[in-house]
Amino acid sequence: MAAAKQGWTKWALCSALVLAGCGGGESKNPPAGSPSGPPSGSDSYAVNITVSGLNGSGLVLQNSEGDDLAVASNGLKTFSKRLASGSAYAISVKSRPRSPLQTCTVSNGTGNVASENVTNITVTCADVVSRFAYSPAGPGWSTVSAYKVESTGALTSLTPATVSAPGGPWSSAVDPAGRFLYIGSDTSVYRFRIDGAVSPVGVPDSRTTINSGNGTRTVAVHPNGKFVYAVNFFSDDIAVFNINAVDGSLSSAGPPVPTGQQCERFFFDPTATFAYTICLPEQKVYGYRVNGDTGALTPLGEVLSVSSGGYAIATHPEKRILYAVDPANNMSAYAINSDGSLSLIGAGVPSSAAFSLVVEPNGKYVYAVNGAAIRVYSVNTDGSLSFTNTVNFGTGMAYQITSDAAGKFIYVAHTTAARIRVYRIDPADGNLINDVPGSPYVVSGTNSVVVTY
């Protein structure tokens, strides 16, 4: 009995002094006999989570935006901050697991503490599996090609193989839940509903359209799934739309926001606090503060000078870092500061101009495409880059490069050759392996590729 009392006293003291170094990482359970609860008469209670299906690393859960819990394994976990009876809690996934990339779902994650420990919250994780891929054909064509993504990364045409999108479709984006596909054309944003349950082949089976401006070269969906952004190449602005949570339809969220001249691309930082677009004639990157509640953009002005050789910017999925090619054609990493400004990290890597960049979802490798070549970079601990290899695939121009949802394959829209090229990512070093069955795939035209999960 005395030993048990001594054990409890030691655990309680450590809990009180956790900020002084008694613990770290995952919360520790108290001694046997009190697995996650207070002693009799205490007025604070533990918030417990049961985690299952976790295979990756880096999972961080958060309670009400103030208490983080790093989770490295399955089982019962406990937040370090104890709550009084009646206190509200709201559990969310702050950082999802990677290597392998997973999605995690919280059940029973909100409520108020009764006069007992919270024990009914579960977090279930599952590996990300790519399902479908879509590629708009671009000017001169009015179609979007639709594919099923096989486990090998190969593309199998759906039935029908194309869907109509008049007006020269350029770019594509999918909402975070994989329910809606948005296509940007010269004057409109098309919305398709992806209904894999009703139509097993996954062809979008309904379409609406909304005027977006003049020359929508890029569409992007806010990570919270509530807003679509259309970057307009000729009207030099960004149109912002609300997403209807039920049917995915769009409505204006306010007047267009001015940009520089002839801008493309639109990337959020990992917290979706800031977003960036690149304007080639000016060789500038423009930044915006993003309001996650309304979708509104507050211009930050010019934040970076870049190369004249292409629309190559991208942000890291976890680190607050933006990658771009500087005016001297160095592939460079920039820290995203608390005000949205950018600061160079170390020295850039001598490179060539690049038309498109992608950071694969695990955040380990960066790929840059220019002409008919892909340059491969590994991401260092501080976010800077090291050059790894170059992959050549012919002649002409590739307009865009992207990754599948799990970070296993790279997809290239080889525009002038009317091909979609697919490469397998070597997880050991990030190099690209050309062994995907059927690649390259002949298409009527292609400007971009988006892969859903």
Task: Present the secondary structure layout.
Layout: H1 2-16, E1 44-45, E2 47-52, E3 59-63, E4 67-71, E5 75-78, E6 83-84, E7 88-95, E8 102-107, E9 110-112, E10 118-127, E11 132-136, E12 143-149, E13 155-164, E14 171-174, E15 180-184, E16 188-193, E17 207-211, E18 216-221, E19 227-232, E20 237-243, E21 250-252, E22 257-258, E23 263-268, E24 274-279, E25 284-290, E26 297-305, E27 313-315, E28 321-325, E29 330-336, E30 342-344, E31 349-350, E32 356-359, E33 365-370, E34 373-379, E35 385-392, E36 400-403, E37 409-414, E38 419-425, E39 432-433, E40 441-442, E41 450-451
Mean pLDDT: 84
The number of helical segments is: 1
Tally the beta strands. Answer: 41
* Sheet having the most strands: 5 strands, antiparallel
- Percent in helix: under 10%
| Structural Rg | 24 Å
Q: Quickly give the structural class.
A: mainly beta
Question: Which features would summarize this protein structure in a list?
Answer:
453 residues, mainly beta, 1 helix, globular
